[in-house]
Amino acid sequence: MDHFDVVVVGARVAGASTAMLLAxxxxxxxxxxxxxxxxxxxxxxxxxxxxxxxxxxxxLLPAVADAGTPAIRRTKFHYAHGQSVDVEIRPSxxxxxxxxxxxxxxxxxxxDAAAExxxxxxxxxxxxxxxxxxxxxxxxRARDPQGRERRLRAQVTVGADGLRSTVxxxxxxxxCRQGRTSGAVLYRYFAGLETAGYEWAYGDRxxxxxxxxxxxxxxxFVGTSPQRMRTLRRRSGGxxxxxxxxxQACAELPERVATAVPVSRIHGWAxxxxxxxxxxGEGWALVGDAGYFKDPITSHGIxxxxxxxxxxxxxxxxxxxxxxxxxxALGCYQATRDRLSLRLFAATEAVxxxxxxxxxxxxxxxxxxxxMGEEVExxxxxxxxxxxx
Length: 389
Prior knowledge:
Helix content is 40%, strand content 26%. Strand 11 and strand 12 (207-212) form a beta hairpin. The chain is of the alpha+beta class and 389 residues long.
């Protein structure tokens, strides 16, 4: 049986970041994932300012840029009736620009950083159940790539294993807030598509996004309500639905995208309502989508994962060192996460309803931006406080 301070289940953005930061602080950490190392996953890719700030603080942003991830210095919003708004992304400390790395690049970078810091990396290990000491979670049982059972004991088990989290289910984590809306998405990668940077479009019950990423490619997505997506796909298939929604989001986009070269098939996402879970208990904690998920229309999931990993690690280090009781430390983690999240959660719910008119969506976009500003202000203040001798 293996013994660790912390076992982290799930090696995507939130889990790999948590393991890396714990290992850098001297904790004995195991990082498990049911998938192979370096696989891709569904993602909108876009990092917002707070996410870039975290990678910069962790000395990982240069590797993102060196991998050829384009720097995003402008955002363009397309609204109904051909109206557009350009916004300059002004550099700030730790945030020279925005970036949208492919997930196989970003996740691998974070896992490698965790391994370099001393974490034990265990790909293709599927967690089957939790270990317990009385009522306290004490680690996990997992199946290794050969199908053998492996037991890993830990003082704390972190579930970073996504929407259908095994750790959340097995620990009985209750849902504190349940979302009511969700959007269905189609997306595809194109080469040779000129963009102004990030581009977001909001039209007739449809939205679209253009997100420049690695290898000269642009991720193009379209979204609408699940019911409408099903109707469009039944009528004209995935290709027809993609083209129709692109034009309904912004009339100029179909012609622009038609000049580019598709380099992937169309991928789909059926849509799942958001949730906020109770994210800690005796010997366990949740981070990333396992604890808090909202519709991807506001492209904030990666940034949430990076932010919450650091908030959780602060709490775990305080608790494991004996400075703060576990209940107090993890309760503070959830309270801070919720304070920074719930305003954006509510705005995302409204956008994902796809029932807005032109005035509504402009207000909602401003609300999303304001919510992100609060988050950056908190993180910048936190790092400045830690830098004071």
